[in-house]
Every structure is written in structure tokens, then in C-alpha cells.
Amino acid sequence: MNGNERRLPSRTARFGVFEANAATGELRREGRVVKLQDQPYRLLIYLLERPGEVVTREELHAALWPDGSFVDFEQGLNAAIKKVRFALRDSAENPRFVQTFPRKGYRFIAPVGWEEARSQPDPAVTVSSPGRARMWMLAVAVAAGITAGYWWFRWREPRGTAAVPVPLTSYPGVQYAAAFSPDGRQVAFAWDGGSGDNFDIYVKTRDSESPTRLTNDAAPDLSPAWSPDGQRIAFLRDLGNGRVAIMLIPAAGGFPVQIAAVWAPLAPQYRNLAFTPDGSWLITAGSGKEGSAVGIVLCPAETGACRPLTKPSGGYDINPALSPDGRSLAFLRGPLLATMDLYVVPLEGNWSAAGEARRLTAWNRFALSPAWVRDGSEIVMASGEYFKTRLWHIPVSGSGEPAVIAAAGDEAMLPAMAPDGSMAFSQRRKRVSIWSLDLRRAEQQSHLVRWPASSSRIDTHPRFSPDGGRVVFKSTRSGTDQIWIANADGSGARQLTAMTATFVDMPAWSSDGTKVLFRALQDGHFDFYTVSAAGGTPRFLMRGNPGDGAPKVSADGQWIYFHSKRSGEYQIWRMPAGGGSAVQLTRGGGMGGRDSPDGRTLYFVRYAGGDNASLWRMPAGGGEEARVIEGILGESFDVTGKGIYYAGACRPDGTCPLFFHAFAGGENTQLAASTLPGNNGLCVSPNGHTLLRAHIIEIGADIMVLEGSGK
Hints:
This protein is mainly beta. The protein folds into 3 domains: 11-116, Arc Repressor Mutant, subunit A (Orthogonal Bundle); 173-421, TolB, C-terminal domain (Neuraminidase); 430-700, Neuraminidase. The chain has 5 helices and 53 strands. Strands 45-46-47-48-49-50-51 form a 7-stranded antiparallel β-sheet, with no helix packed on it. Strands 9, 30, 31, 32, 52 and 53 form a 6-stranded antiparallel β-sheet that branches. It has a 5-stranded antiparallel β-sheet with strand order 4-3-2-1-8, with helices on one face. The longest helix has 16 residues, at 73-88. It starts with 10 loop residues before the first strand and ends in a 5-residue tail after the last strand.
């Protein structure tokens, strides 16, 4: 300790169910140790010494980072506060312990009692401890032959440790796919740098705040994996148009080298790369031909051709994870990327499959990135709704029941096991709200304002009723994707569906405004349903093929337009509104189709990469296809009698301007307001007065660490 470092008091602070022993540096919750790093712990003690007072940021800087010893003080303080809140299970929005005064400081608001520090009893040997009581109850249950007691024991929290996840990274933006070095001292991860424009690979030591950037290519770099000797890091680079490169870079920094390339789906929330234990091969997902089924492939870690490890007849095999002994491979398989289940296949000594893959789950739900626990008895996997995944323990034997890891919370994904038995995972956050623009005031610099029916969760795909009096939209405010309805002014919001499907989205009105059409993902199919606008039981309309989406009712109410890949690539199809056979309309590709108010013209988009698209038109019954607008944001457009409102391609600063394309003259006029990213729906009221636009308010992800979950 240097002369400027502040000494901790030799006393114990008690507040709520917590106690902080300043002498030993331990924080305990109900007698059990809660892990908290040194700097956040010192910050907590400083606040505990002055309960009820506003401690300024300047005071904290002088006390905890003296003599400018920490260059980026703002980032360090914000990270420390965040870690304190996680340890205390506190919330910045509704604080019970630490209250924030923006740009000023912090105040500890709970009552605090101080007493002389004394040694803490070990809860593992204290008769009255919760862990001891649970063990006694378990013994009685086992003696009585109650099988449920066995499973309760397996999934209970580790004795002596409070299962509270703490941040490993807490930088702005998104951090995904933690990968521990073989010695457990370092972690590699993909980070968008806080700006959201591009992912690169970073490395940090577990006890440091500042990461080292390894890659800086303009293309996204994802899915880092350490070589068994800790000398190299492999990762995947997006080459565009479905092509993915397998790259290697020295762990200490240097030039990355491409060793192979495959056709594969790539997303930040996937972990699609793993080394074999001898370091000579890399396992990833891919195919050698565009458009063919994606399987697990084995690629040399030096140079050479990749060879298939699994050969699915269709759909996808993704997210490979090698068992600790190298004898089994876990992966996800499904007809769609949104409908996956967990499989395990035994391996030969040359890393080829030694038999058929064995299915461990039959959930047919959204799933992500399995990881083996250290003893190989279980696999941890994320599964659930698209933006409500949770982590699950899956017994490899198949004889036990899967169990949720409750301590990891919602939005947990990408588990990774550390050598010390802890588990890292990414916990993401996303808010999408619906905003309105008064089109009558656009020339007077009108701005988007938050639509009153928006929640604090995810609200997307608004659509005005034919009479303009109501709006139907998708929301997660009830905990899962459901269809909601509200008055056009945002009042009177109420839930319209209560489906158990993985996805429930893309609502659209019938032409008479009495029913709502929507899509739901069940058993690997996007089925179409209708439900009364007054509420009630949804009525099944059509069993869709994988990839069917964006249903819209024609202006005359006779047809339903939708896009589908049933012919091999996305095209616009239509079917009778009352049910019946579907007919393909477009030939050159199309998504998000909808017709003009007079029903004569069909408009649709063609994607050019990412969310960038062009808008096209054709006669509603089929015919010549012609481009109308170049550079729009996905399917965020609506057609009126006078023209087309749309969100333009996003700019480098992240904003996506709103435009009006006039049929008379064909001019594109930028509206007076811009909006944030998000291809989440745009609609205009029938009277042309109001535009509703769903866009992303916040998106991010931190890497968390949970002790004792990796065995």
C-alpha cells in the first residue's frame, strides 16, 4: 500500500441483509460471501461511511484514484458503481441502496449500522445456516426415498456462496462470446466498441478494466476461441453475402491470417468456433456451397480443405461445443435458426462422427450456443424467446430433467466455462419503442415524440386500423411476444393474444377492421392466425412453411400477401383471405409486400446486404417488376394515396432519416425528423396526419460471471 492509498476501517457495516467486513474485505449476504472486486468494494465502503450524504464524483476520484492513477476515471467509476449494484441486487432506476445524482455523485440511502469487525462463522458448519438446514432436509428426503430431493440438491445454489452474477465487462455497447484462456487468467470477447458500428476481438485479464484490441478490420469479427496452448486466438470474420472466414491471430497481438472460408449463418449471439484438444483442427458451422444445408465442419488449423462432420438433410447444424474429454460434440440442429434443439454426437479419434447424433431436447424453440461443464456431465444452453433467453442445465445422460439457472436471470446467453469452475455469460438488454411524427407539422421542424402506448420493453410493428382509430402492435410487456391493441392516441392499451409460441409478431388488419392477422412460430413453422379486434381465441388460418412472414391483407380484403422461401429464395406470394392455395407473384426476389390503397399495385423490398434494401413495385396480380427507391431501411415503409413514407438507409452517425416519396413527380423529400436504427415497422394513418415508427432506444450486452455454475 502506497502513501496515497486509503486504508479501510477495521469495522463491519450492516445494512439490509448485507454486511461488509472492512477489515477482511468481505461482503456477505445472509452470511454467504458475495464476490466483489477490490476497487468496487472500496467504493462501497466509502459510501457506507457517509450514509445519507451525496458523495461527489470528485471526492471519489481523490479517494479511490489518487494522483491521477487511473486515466479514464469516468469509465472506471461507472464500472465500479455498476458492479456494486450487481452485488447488492440493486437497481439504478429504483434504488434501495445506491442513489445516483446525475453528473454530481452518489448517496447510500439505506440505514447503516457499524460495529467492531469480528471473524465470520463459516456458514457451511453453522447449525443454523440455510445450507446446513437444506442438507438436513435433503438427507431426510433421500432416506424416505423421495426422488425429487435428488434433483433439488443438484440444482440448488452452491453452499457458502451467494449466486449473484458480477460484471466481467461493463463497457458501453455490446460485449459477446467470452472465451477463457487455458489458464483462466484472460478472456477474449467480441465488442462493438460502444458505437455499434462494428465488432472486433478484444482481450483482457480477469482482474483488469482495460481491454486490448486485437483486430480492427472493417468487417465484423466474432466467436473468439483460444488455442489449447494459449498462443493463438481463432475467430470468424464476416466476408459478406453469407461467406465467413476462419481467422487466426497471435493472442499477444499481430496480423490475422485467414485459413479457410465457408458459407454459414453468422451473428454476434452465436459461438460458432472451437479448437480440438490437440490444437490441430477447428470446428465450425458451414457448407461448401451457397444455399445448401449447413452442417458442422472440421477445418485444419493451418491450411487445407474443410471436411464435413455432420450432414443434415436440410436446415442448420450450428454452434458446436466439444466435450472436455474430446469424445463428444454438442451442437444445435433445427429447420430454422429460430427453432433449434440440442444434439450430441460421439467422435472417433480422427474427429469424425462415431455414430448418429442423439437429441437431448425437444423444445423446438429459439436456442443459442451450448457449453459443457468441466466434468462433462451437463451442458449449459440458452433457450426461450428471442429476447428472453435463459440459461439451462441439460443432463448429458438424458435421464434427468433440464433445470433453469435462475441466478443468471433473463436475457442470458453464450455461457463459457472457466478453469476455476465459474461461468461467464452475456446478458443483453434491448428497448424498442414506438414513436409518432405529426406529418402536418413536418415542415415546421416537427420531431418524433414517444407514443403513449409504448412500454419500457420491446414494442414493434405498429399498424393503423382502416378507420385510423386504433393501432395494433407487438409487445413483450407481458413477458413474451404478444399482440396488443390501443387507441390511435396511445390510450387504452390492452393485450389481444396470449399465445405460447416462440414468436408472435407482424400484426395486420383485415380490410373491415374487425380482425387482426398475425404470425406465430410453432413446431418449426410460422403459422398464420386471425383474432377478433375485440379479443377472443385466435383462429388458425394457414400452416406456413419455414421462413413465411410479413402477412398483409389486400385493400379489397380478398387476398393475403406474404413472403416465403418455399421456391428456394424469398419471393412474394398471395393466398385467398379465407384460406386456400398460395401463388407466387415475384420472380426476382421480394419481402415485406403490401399493396397500394387502391389495390392495383404491390410494393415490396429486395435486400442488398444487412438491413439495406431497395423498394420495388409490380401489378397486384403479377407482371413486370420495377425499382422505385434505392436505399431504404428494410421493410420500414408505408404506402398512401399520394406517395410512400419510408426510413432511409442509416448514416454513419447511426441516425436513419425519414423520407416521403411523392407519386406526383417522383421526388424524395426528407422529413424534418430523423430516427434511430431499427427495422421494426413504420405506418401512416389513413388521413395522412400521423406516422408511427418503431426504433431502437437502447441495445447492449455485458459479460457476467457466476460462481460455481461450471462445476
